[in-house]
C-alpha cells in the first residue's frame, strides 16, 4: 500500500495557514478576515493532527486486533478537539462583535471603521 | 493544610462564575456584592498559598485527578506563581470594589461572569505546568478579554474588540503551531519534561517553535509590533477591566513568555531568540512612549505608558541573566501596583466628570483632591522618580541591561523615560495648576483603596529591600530551570 510521505500533510497544513494569513492581512471586509482566521485555525489543527499521525496505523480506539502499537498518537487528537472548541467560541464572539459594529457604523469595510486612532 | 487545596484557586472563580445566573434575580447590587465576596475569598486562598510557599520554601504542586505528570496535568505554585496569583486576586478584589461605582451598563450578570473568568484565566496561566493547558487558559483569558472590551456596546468598543480578536486569533494560531512543533520534537506537553528534553532536540526546530510561541504570547504581552489592539482596548473597555488588563492580563502573558523561554534555555540556538526579544522589547518601549506623548485622552495615554513599561519588563526577561529576571519580576510587581492606582484614579475621574480627556483633569486638584493626589503619586512613580517604587526596578533593569552589554538598549530606554516624564508632568500640571471648579465629594471605599496604594508605592520606594528579596526568589523560580525540573514529580514514562 502506498501512503503519501508524511511531509505532504505538513505542506497542506502550512498552506492553509498561509492562505488564512493572506486573507486576514489583505482583505478589507471584516467577514472575509474572519473567514481567513477560521481557515488559519483549520490549518493549525491539521498540522497538530498530522504531527501525531503515523502512517498505516488506525484510530486510537482500543478494539479487537488494535493495541497501543497499532494506533496513532491520541494526544494531538485530543488537543485538536480542544482547539476546535476554542476556535468556535472565538468565531462566535467575533461574529457577534461584527453585528454590533455593523449596527453602529453601517459598513463592514475595515478602512472605514476607524474611529479609534492616535 | 493540604497543598491540594490550592486547586481552589482555579475551581473557585469557575464555580463562582457558574452560579452568577442564580444571583441574578436578587438585583444588580447583589451581583456586585457576590463578585466582591468571591474575589475576597480568592484573595484569602492566594494569601494562604503565598504564606505557605514562602515559609516552607517548597512549591505547592497540585496533581489533577491523581495522575502524575507528565500523564496528568499539574499546577505549579512556586515562588513566582504564588506571588502573582496573590497580585491577580488582590487586583481583582480592588476592582470588584470599583465595580460598584464604574459599572452601570446592563447586563451586569454577564459582566460579573466574565470578570471572574478573566481572573481565572490569568491565575491559570500563571499556575499551570503544562504547555497546552497554558494555551487553554490563555484562550480563556483572551476570549473573556475580547468580550469585556466590547462590553460597553458602543461602536468604538466593538471596533477595539475586533482588532484585539483578529490579532489574538493570529497569535493563538502561532502559539499552537509552536506547541505542535515542540510536541512533535519532544513527545510531551509537560513543561518540566520539555525542559528536561530541550537539550536533545534539533536546535532549528526548537528555535522556530520557541519563536512562534513567543510571537503568539507577544499579543497578550503587548509587544511591538503585535500591540496595535492594546491602546484601543484599554480605552474602550470598562474602567475596572482596563486596570485588570494592565495589572495582570499582560503580566500573565509576560510570565508565560519568560517561563517558556527559560525552559528551552539548554537549546543551542537559544540566544538568537533572546536577541529577537530584546529588539522587540526595546522597540516597544520607544514606540509606546512617543505615541503616549501625542494623546489627548488620559486613559489612552496611560495605556501607552503601560505598554512601554511592559516592554521594559520583556527587555529584562530577554537578557538571559539572573539579575535581569529578578529585576523584571520586581518591575512586574511595582507596575501592577502603580497601574491599578492610575487606572483606578483616571477611571473614577471619567465616571464622575464624564470623560477621560485631558480637559477633564484641569483643576482636579481642587475638585477631587484625594483622587488627584493618587494620580499624581502614580504618575511620578511611573516616571521613575526616586523614593517611588518604580525607580528601583527601572534602575535594576538598566543596570542588568548594561551588564549584559546591550548599552544601546539601556540608552534608548533612558531616552524614552525622558519622553515619559514630559507627558506625565503635563498631566500633573493640568491637575494642579490649571482650571477651577467646585469640590466633588469622593467615594470613601475608593479613596481608602487609593490611599492604601499610595502608601504601598511610597513604602516600597523608601524601603525596597523586602519586596526585592521576594522578587529575587520569584525570579530564581523562573531562571533556575534545573530546580523546576527537580520539583515536579515526573513519572518515568515517555522520555
From TrEMBL, chain A:
Keywords: Cell membrane, Membrane, Transmembrane, Transmembrane helix. Its main location: membrane. It is a multi-pass membrane protein. It comes from the Archaea. This is Multisubunit Na+/H+ antiporter, MnhC subunit. InterPro entries: CPA3_antiporter_subunitC (IPR050601), NUOK/Mnh_C1-like (IPR039428). One of its GO terms (cellular component) is plasma membrane.
From TrEMBL, chain B:
One of its GO terms (cellular component) is plasma membrane. Its main location: membrane. Keywords: Cell membrane, Lyase, Membrane, Transmembrane, Transmembrane helix. It is a multi-pass membrane protein. The keyword Iron-sulfur does not apply. InterPro entries: CPA3_Na-H_Antiporter_D, ND/Mrp_TM. GO terms for molecular function: lyase activity. Coiled coil: none annotated. It holds the Pfam family Proton_antipo_M. The chain crosses the membrane at residues 6-26, 33-50, 76-99, 111-128, 164-185, 205-229, 241-261, 273-290, 302-320, 332-351, 372-392, 404-425, 446-466. Residues 130-417 form the NADH:quinone oxidoreductase/Mrp antiporter transmembrane domain. It is found in: Cell membrane. PANTHER family: NA(+)_H(+) ANTIPORTER SUBUNIT D1 (PTHR42703:SF1), NADH DEHYDROGENASE (PTHR42703). NCBIfam families: PRK08377.1 (NF006241). This is Formate hydrogenlyase subunit 3/Multisubunit Na+/H+ antiporter, MnhD subunit. It comes from Thermococcus nautili.
Amino acid at each position: 500500500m502506498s501512503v503519501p510521505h508524511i511531509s505532504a500533510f505538513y505542506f497542506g497544513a502550512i498552506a492553509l495557514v498561509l492562505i488564512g494569513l493572506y486573507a486576514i492581512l489583505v482583505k478589507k471586509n471584516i467577514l472575509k478576515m474572519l473567514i481567513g482566521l477560521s481557515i488559519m485555525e483549520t490549518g493549525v489543527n491539521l498540522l497538530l493532527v498530522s504531527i501525531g499521525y503515523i502512517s498505516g496505523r488506525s484510530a486510537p480506539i482500543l478494539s479487537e486486533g488494535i493495541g497501543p502499537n497499532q494506533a496513532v498518537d491520541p494526544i494531538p487528537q485530543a488537543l485538536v478537539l480542544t482547539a476546535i472548541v476554542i476556535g468556535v467560541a472565538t468565531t462566535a464572539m467575533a461574529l457577534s462583535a461584527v453585528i454590533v459594529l455593523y449596527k453602529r457604523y453601517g459598513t463592514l469595510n475595515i478602512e472605514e471603521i476607524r474611529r479609534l486612532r492616535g | 493544610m493540604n497543598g491540594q487545596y490550592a486547586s481552589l484557586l482555579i475551581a473557585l472563580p469557575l464555580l463562582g462564575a457558574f452560579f452568577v445566573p442564580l444571583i441574578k434575580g436578587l438585583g444588580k447590587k447583589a451581583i456586585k456584592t457576590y463578585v466582591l465576596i468571591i474575589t475576597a475569598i480568592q484573595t484569602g486562598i492566594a494569601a494562604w498559598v503565598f504564606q505557605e510557599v514562602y515559609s516552607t520554601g517548597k512549591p505547592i504542586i497540585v496533581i489533577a485527578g491523581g495522575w502524575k505528570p507528565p500523564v496528568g496535568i499539574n499546577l505549579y505554585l512556586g515562588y513566582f506563581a504564588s506571588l502573582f496569583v496573590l497580585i491577580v486576586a488582590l487586583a481583582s478584589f480592588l476592582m470588584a470594589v470599583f465595580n460598584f461605582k464604574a459599572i452601570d451598563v446592563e447586563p451586569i450578570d454577564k459582566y460579573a461572569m466574565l470578570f471572574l473568568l478573566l481572573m481565572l484565566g490569568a491565575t491559570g496561566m500563571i499556575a499551570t505546568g503544562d504547555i497546552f493547558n497554558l494555551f487553554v487558559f490563555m484562550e480563556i483569558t483572551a476570549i473573556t478579554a475580547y468580550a469585556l472590551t466590547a462590553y460597553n456596546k458602543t461602536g468604538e468598543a466593538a471596533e477595539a474588540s475586533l482588532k484585539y480578536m483578529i490579532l489574538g486569533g493570529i497569535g493563538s494560531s502561532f502559539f499552537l503551531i509552536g506547541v505542535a512543533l515542540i510536541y512533535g520534537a519532544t513527545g510531551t506537553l509537560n513543561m518540566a519534561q520539555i525542559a528536561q528534553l530541550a537539550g536533545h532536540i534539533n536546535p532549528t526546530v526548537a528555535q522556530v517553535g520557541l519563536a512562534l510561541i513567543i510571537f503568539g504570547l507577544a499579543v497578550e504581552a503587548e509587544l511591538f509590533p503585535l500591540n496595535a489592539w492594546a491602546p484601543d482596548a484599554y480605552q474602550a473597555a470598562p474602567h475596572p477591566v482596563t486596570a485588570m488588563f494592565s495589572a495582570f492580563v499582560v503580566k500573565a502573558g509576560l510570565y508565560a513568555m519568560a517561563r517558556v523561554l527559560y525552559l528551552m534555555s539548554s537549546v543551542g540556538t537559544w540566544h538568537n531568540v533572546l536577541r529577537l526579544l530584546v529588539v522587540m522589547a526595546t522597540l516597544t518601549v520607544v514606540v509606546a512612549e512617543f505615541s503616549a506623548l501625542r494623546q489627548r485622552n488620559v486613559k489612552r495615554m496611560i495605556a501607552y505608558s503601560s505598554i512601554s513599561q511592559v516592554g521594559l519588563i520583556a527587555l529584562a526577561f530577554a537578557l538571559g541573566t539572573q539579575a535581569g529576571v529578578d529585576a523584571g519580576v520586581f518591575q512586574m510587581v511595582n507596575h501592577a501596583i502603580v497601574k491599578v492606582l492610575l487606572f483606578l484614579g483616571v477611571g473614577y475621574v471619567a465616571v464622575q466628570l464624564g470623560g477621560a480627556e485631558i480637559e477633564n483633569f484641569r483643576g482636579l486638584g481642587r475638585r477631587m483632591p484625594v483622587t488627584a493626589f493618587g494620580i499624581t503619586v502614580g504618575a511620578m512613580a511611573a516616571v521613575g522618580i526616586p523614593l517611588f517604587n518604580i525607580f528601583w526596578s527601572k534602575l535594576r533593569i538598566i543596570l542588568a541591561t548594561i551588564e549584559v552589554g546591550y548599552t544601546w538598549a539601556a540608552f534608548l530606554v533612558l531616552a524614552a523615560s525622558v519622553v515619559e516624564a514630559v507627558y506625565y508632568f503635563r498631566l500633573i500640571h493640568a491637575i494642579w495648576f490649571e482650571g477651577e471648579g467646585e469640590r466633588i465629594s469622593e467615594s470613601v471605599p475608593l479613596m481608602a483603596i487609593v490611599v492604601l496604594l499610595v502608601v504601598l508605592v511610597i513604602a516600597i520606594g523608601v524601603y525596597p529591600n523586602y519586596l526585592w528579596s521576594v522578587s529575587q526568589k520569584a525570579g530564581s523560580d523562573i531562571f533556575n530551570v534545573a530546580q523546576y525540573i527537580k520539583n515536579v514529580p515526573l513519572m518515568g514514562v515517555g522520555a
